[in-house]
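We give its fold:
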Amino acid sequence: MKELLFALTLANAGDLASTEYALSRPDLIAVEGNVLMQHRTARVSLKSGATAIEVWGLRKMHATHPKVAKGVAIGLTAFNGYLAVHNLRMVQQARGQR
C-alpha cells in the first residue's frame, strides 16, 4: 500500500506542477477550470491538503477494507495522472495553434 500512496502523491504533484506550468506560460492563454483553484495560493493549499486527506483516509480504510482502499488508491492515482497528462497535452496543442 505504501507504493500506491507514494504513486498517488506523485500523481497529485504532477497535476499541480503541470497546471502551474500551463498557467505560467505568458505565450498561452490558459485558465484553471476549477473556480476554487483560480489563485495560486488556493490551488497549492487545496491540492496539498486534498492529497494529505486522501493518503490519511486511505491508510485508515486499508486497516479495515484493504481491497477497497487499494482500488480507490488506484483510481485516484489514475485520475490525477490523467489530469497531469491532459494539462501537458493542452499546452502542446496550444503551442501548435500559434
Observations:
- Helices lie at 2-24, 40-64, 66-97.
- The chain has three helices and no strands.
